[in-house]
Design goal:
Layout (H helix, E strand, L loop, with lengths): L11 E4 L7 H7 L5 E4 L5 H11 L3 E5 L8 H13 L4 E6 L1 H14 L3 E5 L10 E6 L2 E6 L7 E4 L9 H19 L6 H23 L4 H20 L4 H11 L5 H16 L4 H11 L4 H11 L15 H11 L10 H13 L5
Helix pairs in contact: 3-4, 5-6, 5-7, 5-9, 6-7, 6-10, 8-9, 9-11, 9-13
The chain binds nicotinamide-adenine-dinucleotide.
Nicotinamide-adenine-dinucleotide binds next to helix 4, strand 6, helix 5 and helix 9.
């Protein structure tokens, strides 16, 4: 019998090619006059261009965002925000930059605006993962959720082909795990279904033509839906594994998701037949895990954790951390099955 609690997260989403140019007017409307712009060293040019655009409303630019939100970077940014007397934060970049904005915002109370440039989806979640002493911890709080997101597909044209692929699979992992989450609702199920279908149809167009404006918009739209699924539900084994591999072994976020997703889908297949069937229907295939694995292989994307620097010695530690904190997952955590799955992912073999 249908029974659920659906909670809508309070955020404003603006979507459209060129909408990043609306930032100045948005800040003016809210009487914000000292924005601290955040980005990564690799996207410093983008940070500076948005700073130029808002002109006198920019109090400074911080170009040091790093993956997995290390605490020392957050501390440096907090100090800068204080010294330039920032009254708000503008994060322009991928999940790493968004994560830094969330970490500073939740500690300082500064309002945050996000202009995402990848498909990670962090901008629509009230979740923050932070790393200190090689341990990544995650927390969830309403105050973490950015208040306004400007989705401008033009900013994703520059995504390299390999990152387009891994970031898209990262996004689809949110939708896939939402489908079997204990707190999945009919709305989230619809979003997940739509997201996976749209993303899978956009990707071949992007492989053929990376700057295809329509396909870029579709992929970013799908990423928003996927992020919304992530923000609204409790993730399972896949996100937990990627969290450990990122936080403890410093593996890159999107490629790690890309490698693990087919394996975890296979692991949970029999325990969550409804979610598996939804995914299969959305993707137009009978074996979603193999379809994703084959697509990544064909596009020369990452399939082996060993290629990211992981070794066999780390598997025991991953399993220990997985079993240390109980969380929702359709299939029980069986040490032998986990070991086999991780060994396959390490070697780049197809999922069992
Ligand atoms: P990222 O933000 O680390 O970006 C990776 C690299 O790609 C960076 O050098 C970045 O500058 C560059 N880049 C980003 N967009 C680009 C573009 N359009 N063109 C060219 N280069 C671009 O990678 P990510 O996968 O977006 O984010 C990963 C981080 O986000 C991890 O720390 C992860 O934990 C976090 N995350 C958090 C949540 C959440 O809800 N809390 C959700 C998803 C991801």
């Amino acid at each position: 019998m249908l029974s659920f609690t659906h909670r809508q997260l309070p955020a404003t989403i603006r979507f459209g090619a060129g909408c990043r140019h609306e930032l100045k007017a948005i800040l003016e409307t809210r009487n914000l006059m000292r924005a601290l712009v955040l980005t990564t060293p690799e996207q410093a040019h983008l940070g500076r261009s948005i700073a130029d655009e808002i002109g006198p409303l920019c109090a400074g630019v911080f170009e040091g965002a790093r993956m997995h939100t290390p605490m020392e970077v957050t501390r440096d940014t907090m100090a800068l925000a204080q010294s330039v007397r920032a009254d708000c934060l503008v994060a322009i970049g991928g999940g790493s930059t968004t994560g830094l904005g969330k970490a500073v915002s939740v500690r300082s109370g500064l309002p945050q605006f996000v202009i995402p440039t990848t498909y990670a989806g962090s901008e629509v979640t009230p979740v923050l993962g932070e790393t200190e002493n090689a341990r990544k911890t995650t927390r969830r709080a309403d105050a973490i959720l950015p208040g306004l997101v400007l989705y401008d597909p033009e900013l994703t044209y520059s995504l390299p082909a390999s990152f387009t692929l891994t970031s898209a699979v990262n996004a689809m992992a949110h939708a896939a795990e939402a489908l079997y989450a204990p707190d999945c609702t009919p709305i989230i199920r619809l979003m997940a279904y739509e997201a996976v279908g749209v993303m899978m149809r956009a990707l071949p167009k992007l492989y053929a033509e990376p700057a295809n404006a329509e396909a870029r918009a579709e992929a970013l739209y799908a990423a928003w839906l996927c992020g919304t699924c992530l923000g609204a539900t409790t993730m399972g084994l896949h996100h937990k594994i990627c969290h450990v591999l990122g936080g403890t072994f410093d593996l890159p976020h999107a490629p790690t998701h890309c490698i693990m997703l087919p394996h975890v889908l296979a692991y949970n297949k029999n325990a969550a037949p409804g979610a598996y069937a939804d995914l299969a229907l959305a993707m137009g295939t009978e074996r979603p895990e193999l379809a994703i694995y084959d697509m990544v292989l064909t596009q020369n994307g990452p399939v082996a954790l060993s290629a990211l620097g992981m070794t066999e010695h780390g598997i025991g530690e991953v399993i220990t951390q997985l079993r240390a904190s109980p969380y929702a997952n359709p299939a029980p955590l069986d040490e032998t099955r986990l070991r086999t799955m991780l060994a396959n992912a390490l070697a780049g073999r197809a999922p069992d």
